[in-house]
Amino acid sequence: MSFNINTSYLIDCFKDIVNVPSPVGYYVKFKPVLNRYAESLGYTCSYDNRSTGYITVEGEDSSKTVLVGAHADTIGAVVRGIDSDGTLLVRELGGINYSSIEGNTVTVHTRHGRDYTGLFACKYHSVHIFEKARSETRDETNTMVILDERVSSKEDVKALGIQNGDFISFSPNTEITPNGYLKSRFIDNRGAIACVFEAIRYLNENNLKPKYNTIFAFPFDEETGLGGTYVPSEVSEYVAMDIGLIGPEHDGNEYSVSICAKDAANPYDYDLTCRLIDYAKKAGCDYAVDVYKLYGTDGNAAQRGGNNVKSAAFGMAVTCSHSRERTHITGLENTAKLLLAYLLDI
Ligand SMILES: [Zn+2]
């Protein structure tokens, strides 16, 4: 069985949602996006107390409820202090690679609604000034945000309404080449969310229901390991859609969908992972099965949370994870196809 994916919808959706900031725990700007897409597809998005979003789609068979998780948070940072020269000290959220953020435009989101842009920079920022500009390790001790405001003291910054604990998001810097390469921050995990919306759109267009009652979940705290630790009690399977990895010893590539057989902690459920591999074959997906070392998903977190569910994970593979990532549009298409095959239990 092959699925005729609407690539234009998928990519337009990605380009739309990748620009809405949601560093770990900062859900205020992305909730309206989830609501808007849910409504455009004929559903409503509900939230639990942790702000995880849920879209529930009735299945042909209501004897079982499955969950597809696509985390809605991204890596980011918070303001941990304001220096005497008016630059901001930062603390990372979700495992950033400091050197890969250097030179990026960032936005500081104050708690009173006003946003300010700035430059993420190393304190040894200029090769013409600092001898160790090239050699200094990039970490939180020598990283700063230079605000795009005329400030030169801590008091100047505070007068803008910026305070410790304000969230900092990174510009995604999205680019799609004419031959289909997608370069952007946050393919992890906006790529998966775009696949979810395309799958729901596909079901609607073709008058199809998923085989089983299906909950699509969008946690805002996956990057710190919490997303998925709570699962609604009726759920028996948690399939996490998240990035696949590319590197030595890995079969995954930018053109196929990657199925994760084992992450840093545990193997994913044997039966469910076998089924995903079968679905990939039946749907004609290019796919790879891999084992990841420095990696986890909300499916893994669901296990650690003690939930009585089977877990599995799959998604589009990227190079340069947690940096400005790259994949190919065919990787997203294969991911959407595998999702549809799972939903329909072909
Ligand atoms: Zn992810």
* Share of helical residues: 10-25%
Return the structural class.
alpha/beta
Poorly predicted residue ranges: none
Characterize the main sheet. 9 strands, mixed
What is the CATH homologous superfamily assignment of the largest domain?
A: Zn peptidases
Q: Would you tell me which CATH topology of the largest domain applies?
A: Aminopeptidase
Rg, Cα atoms, Å: 21 Å
CATH uppermost class of the largest domain: Alpha Beta
Shape: globular
Average pLDDT value? 97
How many helical stretches? 8
What is the name of the CATH architecture of the largest domain? 3-Layer(aba) Sandwich
**Share of residues in strands:** 25-35%
Question: How would you describe this structure to a colleague?
Answer:
With 346 residues, the protein is of the alpha/beta class. The protein folds into two domains: 7-74 and 186-344, 3-Layer(aba) Sandwich (Aminopeptidase); 76-170, Peptidase M42, domain 2 (Elongation Factor Tu (Ef-tu), domain 3, Beta Barrel), CATH 2.40.30. Helices cover 25% and strands 28% of the residues. Helix 1 (7-17) crosses helix 5 (187-205) and helix 6 crosses helix 8. Zinc ion binds next to helix 5.
